[in-house]
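Hi both,

Apologies for the delay on this - the queue was longer than expected. I finally got the coenzyme A-bound model through. Below you'll find the protein sequence and the ligand SMILES exactly as submitted, and right after that the structure tokens for the full complex including the ligand.
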Amino acid sequence: MDVSKLSDNYFVRSLNRSDIGMILSLCRKNDLYYQYCPPVFSEHSILHDMEALPPRKSLSDKHYVGFFKDGALIAVMDLIEAYPDEKTAFIGFFMTDTAIQNKGVGSALIEEVCSFLRGEGFTSVRLGWVKGNPQSEHFWHKCGFTETGALYETNAYTVIVAQRAL
Ligand SMILES: CC(C)(COP(=O)(O)OP(=O)(O)OC[C@H]1O[C@@H](n2cnc3c(N)ncnc32)[C@H](O)[C@@H]1OP(=O)(O)O)[C@@H](O)C(=O)NCCC(=O)NCCS
């Protein structure tokens, strides 16, 4: 997958260890998210997220990417190809910079990503949000995702699984 094609409006590239400083800055301002999804982020947790994989997936299926406007990181996405099945793409994480939130940027980006994934042959996108987080729930509903009915429990919170057909 050529991640530079995920957006026509933003420069997109894979993020790596040298980008952790700017990822931390973006996360730091999103305190509502971490109230629902503890523990709070750290350099270590971001490094872990950069390499974390669902069962039976390899790093070649994973794209931990940044979206840039005028050289500034405005959004981060963790995208897994073909999970949990060949025709489904999985968004493991998506976060925008608080400076550009509530202006339609996040939902427009998700539209672009969905359109690209449709072109790549995927027929659905799956993701999850932490039960009770009003911002995440409202956002993913706005982007056309609906609950599958599946939930999964972690020690700290419950994740609601949702999906959108492409
Ligand atoms: C969710 C997120 C990606 C949205 O990005 P964005 O650029 O603000 O997206 P948009 O402007 O397209 O849409 C935001 C919507 O959320 C709504 N919203 C914002 N804060 C909210 C809150 N506390 N409660 C309910 N809805 C909220 C806005 O009103 C808007 O909806 P509307 O257009 O119907 O009014 C961003 O807020 C974020 O990064 N949050 C932290 C991480 C997160 O929750 N990611 C998703 C789960 S993985």
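Main takeaway for now: The chain has a mean pLDDT of 95.

I'll put the files on the shared drive as well.

H.
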